[in-house]
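Quick one, probably user error.
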């Protein structure tokens, strides 16, 4: 862990390169959010105006089949600062976030869900954290009562397992809701992998981080987009992306089983010498046969999970395909100093 002294040295070095009045990019992935998107704008604009910074929205329409994109393009065309990136189909939230990070021009970015489960007021506290020298200020869900018991307990198990197996520390109950400095955005953009398990990538790139606890309210409107099958695969993406232990553990399992089998073989041979040959043993044979077929299938399946992901990485397909970009007004609030740049 970073000591205070060490982080101070680091911070003072960075402070000299930080802009006095940074430009803020607000990255919002949206997928079928027509019911909530107007509420989202109503709730976030006053907060963003209150920051006194110039800002832009970066919406990523992740293949919505409802009016989300229409509503947003209308808002953008009537002066909402920022842009809408329309992906060619639904690529998933992780891919959408990568698209948003690539398109963000700000010195800092806030990643926020459209359903108002991430309270916009927290952005002000996050900015304070950034001003205090942190490169990452993330929201920590202290109260997840808006999630079902099943979701909470499976999520808890996942975080425990992940942090045991992976060599990085991923804070439990931190979502994607966070403010990150340009250095973090650039670091994330340098990661070449196709498997964009963002929570893991955030943890992997590191940087001085600060948590802001908050109670996660239920969705303002619309419906959640993740079912248990999606979450299960998401968890597998996370684990396989950040640890190889599930692959390697079978070697040690194999060694143990072989030793056991060797000892048992010696016992069987000795028994023949002592008490002659006897045939019974159907039950033990059957149990051993079924048990080890199960273990073998399981281990092959585990290897398969990795091979499938290797295959996806090897194909080198882009993480997402952009279909359209709709530009909005120049930028929010007072400061007119920001010039168009490509942001990288
Ligand atoms: N989302 C997305 N693509 C997807 C699924 C979700 O861009 O395939 C967006 C969604 O519009 C929302 C955010 O990701 O802004 C979080 O989605 P949701 O509220 O369903 O997730 P949860 O709150 O259950 O984590
Ligand atoms: Mg939500």
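Nope, works fine. Designed sequence:
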């Amino acid at each position: 862990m970073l000591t205070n002294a060490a982080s101070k040295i680091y911070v003072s070095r960075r402070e000299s390169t930080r802009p006095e009045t940074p430009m803020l990019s607000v990255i919002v992935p949206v997928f079928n959010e027509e019911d909530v998107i107007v509420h989202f704008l109503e709730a976030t604009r006053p907060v963003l105006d209150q920051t006194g910074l110039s800002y832009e929205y970066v919406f990523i329409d992740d293949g919505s089949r409802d009016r989300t994109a229409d509503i947003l393009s209308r808002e953008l065309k009537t002066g909402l600062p920022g842009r809408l990136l329309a992906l060619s189909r639904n690529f998933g939230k992780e891919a959408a976030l990568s698209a948003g990070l690539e398109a963000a021009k700000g010195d800092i970015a806030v990643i926020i869900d459209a359903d108002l489960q991430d309270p916009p007021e927290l952005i002000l506290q996050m900015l304070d954290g950034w001003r205090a020298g942190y490169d990452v200020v993330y929201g920590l869900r202290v109260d997840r009562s808006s999630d079902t018991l099943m979701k909470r307990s499976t999520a808890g198990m996942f975080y425990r397992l992940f942090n045991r197996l992976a060599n990085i520390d991923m804070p439990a109950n931190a979502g994607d809701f966070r403010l990150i400095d340009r250095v973090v955005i650039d670091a994330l953009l340098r990661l070449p992998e196709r498997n964009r398990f963002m929570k893991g990538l955030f943890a992997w790139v590191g940087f001085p981080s600060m948590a802001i606890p908050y109670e996660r309210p239920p969705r303002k409107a619309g419906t959640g987009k993740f079912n248990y099958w999606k979450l299960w695969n998401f968890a597998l993406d996370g684990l396989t992306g950040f640890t190889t232990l599930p692959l390697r553990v079978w070697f040690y399992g194999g060694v143990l089983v072989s030793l056991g089998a060797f000892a048992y073989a010696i016992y069987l041979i000795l028994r023949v010498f002592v008490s002659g040959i006897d045939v019974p043993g159907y039950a033990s044979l059957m149990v051993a046969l079924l048990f080890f077929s199960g273990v073998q299938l399981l281990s092959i399946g585990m290897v398969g999970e990795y091979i499938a992901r290797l295959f996806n990485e090897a194909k080198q397909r882009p993480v997402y395909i952009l279909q359209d970009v709709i530009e909005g007004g120049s930028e929010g609030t007072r400061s007119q100093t920001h010039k168009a740049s490509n942001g990288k």
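The mean pLDDT is 86.
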